[in-house]
Amino acid sequence: MVDISQLIFDKIESELEDYSVSVRIQNSSRLARKFERGYKCKLKFDCDECYRNWNSAQGQVTIYYYLDKSTEELEFNAETYRQQCSKCLSWCQPELYINELNRISEQFAHSVINILFGIKKKSNAKPTESKMTNPHQKDKCEACILGKCSVQNEKDNLEELFGNLNLGSQNRNYIDSESESNSDYSDEYY
Ligand SMILES: [Zn+2]
Ligand SMILES: [Zn+2]
Fold first, then answer.
1. 3CxxC-type domain: which residues (predicted)?
2. Cβ count near 111 (within 10 Å)
3. Who contacts 127 (Cβ-Cβ below 8 Å, separation ≥6)?
């Protein structure tokens, strides 16, 4: 697991600035059982041990978050996951593409705006094109091992917290770029 909260903080904050939502990075232990959103993400890997490099279209980013509706405060943290080198079997940290980080930050910020204010913002950013057709190697994907790969659902008790706040449209918002994700979802988080 690789913490990328700091890498997306500025973009999320600037997206939410106009709405006066304050943003804070929170440590994961406090957020581990709050809400989460999963995003597919293109990642690049460079193995330090054997210098093999590869791209993965099946990278994953998970954003854990908590929204205080009364104070309009967002706490979040974000992580991505390592993959195992198929040549030397070392676990490698991903490099992130800036356009992918921006896309995910924007999508997430738009979801927050929708939850808080019921405003649906269109996103222009498209996922990075990928022609890779190799099957996903689940045993070499840390997200798979941790049960985070393709997670696109969030904890379903939003309604409990926020009442009937456009939850239907919120769901539609984040399905479009994640069409290859399945709805595998487990209530058990570590
Ligand atoms: Zn290697
Ligand atoms: Zn995976």
1. 40-147
2. 23
3. 40, 42, 100, 103, 177
| Ligand at shortest distance from the CA of 58 | 2
- Asked whether residue 20 carries a pLDDT value surpassing 80, the answer given is yes
| Ligand 1 center to 141 CA (angstroms) | 14
Regarding predicted confidence, which is higher, 190 or 163?
163
**176 CA distance to ligand 1 middle (Å):** 34
Token pair recorded at residue 124: 């222009």
Averaged pLDDT for residues 13-29: 90
Say how many Å lie between the CA of residue 94 and the centre of ligand 1. Answer: 13
The answer to whether the pTM exceeds 0.70 is yes
Report the alpha-carbon distance of residue 154 to residue 168 in Å, rounded.
13
Element (H or E) spanning 95, and its range?
strand 94-96
